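Exercise 3.2. Students should predict the tertiary structure of the chain below and write it as structure tokens, then compare their answer with the key that follows.

Predict this chain's 3D structure.
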Amino acid sequence: MTELEELVLTPDERAQGVGVDSVTFTMDWSGEDHPGQLAAFVAGRVRAFGAEPADVDTDAVHRAAEADPTLRRGDLPVRQLDHLSGVLAHLGCTLMMRDNGTDTYELLVALTGEHEPTELTHQGLPVRAWGSEPEETLVSLNCPNCSQMLVWELPSTEDLADERCPCGTALFDATGRPLPHVTLHD
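Answer key:
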């Protein structure tokens, strides 16, 4: 199995003992603190790998977002990450995200060539390619009958078919979809 350090650190960085955390960019779910920070981080990592980061910017994404009346808070970062992921693929790199269980994005750029790395972890948390399905899904809701908060952490291969609250209220149908009276937390 490939180690994360081999993908996100240059040989010189590994020889110097540079840690993975020092090549991670953290961004709140609502976006960058200052426009251009994310693109600058990505371009810097591409340069570290010895490639010229042509088209590694998010200006076009910003312009399109400004003209989109349906854009909501938190949509722009996802669009930026989708865009940069596509740009990086043409450079033999992959935009990676550490699944930390919060509403922040912990991002890494990995030198991967043609292969999408799988089964990577950092400090016990999964790291996956941006846009790939998470290994686990977090589902939470308040029971519409007793108001008890219920939380499940499920492998991506499982669902909550026919799940009920401890009070007996049916929450999900036989296919794992929430029943009409059930509202999931975002």
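Discussion points: The first strand starts at residue 25 and ends at 28. The helical segments are 4-8, 11-15, 37-48, 59-66, 75-89.
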